[in-house]
Amino acid sequence: MDAEAHAGEVGPAVPAGEPGAAAGGPPSELIVAEEAVDRRVVAVVLRTGLAVACALMAAGLAVILARGDRHAHVIRLFEIGGDQSAGDLLLAAGVVVLALTPAVRVLALVVLWAREGDRRFVAVALVVVAVLVAAAAIGHG
Amino acid sequence: MGAGLRGAERRARGRPSGSLVPSAVVQLSGAELAGLAALGVFAGWLGALIGIGGGIIVVPALVLAFGYDIHLAVAVSLVCVVATSTAAGSAYVGEGLAHMRLGMALEIATTVGGIAGGLIAVAISPRALSAVFAGVVLVTAGLALRSREAEVPAADADDRAPGSGPGAGAPPPSGGWEVPGTLAGAYVDPRSGVLVEYRAERLGLGAGVSALAGMLSGMLGVGGGFLKVPAMTVGMKVPIKVAAATSNFMIGVTAIASLLVYFARGYLRPLVAAPIALGVVAGALLGSRLAARTSPALLRRVLVAVLVFVALQMALKAFGVDIGR
Cβ of B104 and A124 within 8 Å? Predict the structure, then answer.
């Protein structure tokens, strides 16, 4: 089912993406169902990522407090896994998971919108992914 | 806390190795870790109650009270901004208020702006960054003073579907929805039960303001919602509830664009960031549960007074006057 077909179901003969197209009242059952899946998947991705990140950071703090070494080291993104202590590794992993969570949300929407045939916004989301990859590369450079 | 630090260590805090000041070994006391966590709880609590990002609290607190370098403070704040946005974004998405396609379209601009902001911030002096921060804090204080309770603007009434509303025809689904392939959508106002339809206009204007918001977010570690929400409501004709939810949905992606720059370049100390981030999440949960028992109007007035004080302190710091020590 592509995006144009969806828009035709909910809107009064206004092509999707054209100025003047409106939400057109209550949507079809198909759109409601797909929308619900999209939102559920995104919410689960965000909640899971946040929970894992918080668990890793809490574990890292616990290890550091237990060992008594409370040095706040600088850790660079591309040097994680070098000579850091277990506590620092857990903390850095927590930050990485937290930072990856919104990016995974973008990737999830790429897959969901591709499945729904919404090519325009698949392209938009892929541009966002490309900008984020560029951010990491620019930071590294 | 920071007042007890020796000057050399204070100046060196947060500086990455290889930059102007060599990397210092920063040892945190138990009291300092507890203070960082308390700062996070406070920022998350206040943010949940009156709808401001934690960055506007976290950055000046780290600089003025804890004595950290503003670049480290911004990097730490961005971690908190991602945590806050992820928690709030999941709730807004679940309710159907955030327009994910509109958010994604504007994220192209905010992420590019975020990278630019991160690069500008690491290139300019802490004093210059403090001056910009002071200006933005003052603007935020002004906006907080003028803001009122979020409500559906009168203009939205014109967007209501003919015959929509309570008892009109088949009941619409709860929450909101998007029209696939477009920037149009609708939601059912939970208080009135009225169907509110909208279509985002002037995407170029929204993208331009979003790029600026992303740049300020990357430079200063703030969310940038104070620019994006008015741009969406006034410029793009998006209802305020959708604009606020969509802005929150976007902030996480915007923040990671610049966070990656700071993290890759060695401006982040995870032991400083973790207790604040955990505190922010706990504070946000606490704030959302206490929201019904507090007065947002009173909190807003207190916040304005605090922000004006913070702006003055940051401005003095920018001019080399450090009256806090």
Answer: yes
- Structure-block tokens of residue B100: 């994910």
B39: which 2 tokens?
Answer: 């700062």
Tell whether B325 is covered by a domain: no
Taking the CA of residue B307 and the nearest CA in chain A, the distance in Å comes to: 28
For B91, nearest residue in chain A (alpha carbons): A43
**What ipTM did this prediction achieve?**
0.81
A4 interaction partners in chain B (CB closer than 8 Å): 181
Domain range for residue B302?
A: 2-318
The pTM score is: 0.81
How far apart are the C-alpha atoms of B19 and B16, rounded to whole Å?
6
B323 within a domain of the structure (yes/no): no
pLDDT tens sequence for chain B (325 residues): 443 343 434 444 544 433 333 355 678 888 999 999 999 999 888 877 766 667 888 998 998 888 888 999 999 999 999 998 888 877 777 777 889 999 999 999 999 999 999 999 989 888 899 899 888 888 878 877 776 544 334 333 333 333 333 333 334 445 778 888 889 988 887 777 788 889 999 999 999 999 999 999 999 888 888 788 888 988 899 998 888 889 888 988 999 999 999 998 888 999 999 999 999 999 888 877 776 566 667 777 777 887 888 888 888 888 877 655 4
Name the minimum distance, in Å, from the CA of A132 to any CA of chain B: 6
Strands B176-178 and B184-188: antiparallel
Q: How many domains in chain B? A: 1
Instruction: Examine residue B183 and state whether it is found in any structural domain, yes or no.
Output: yes
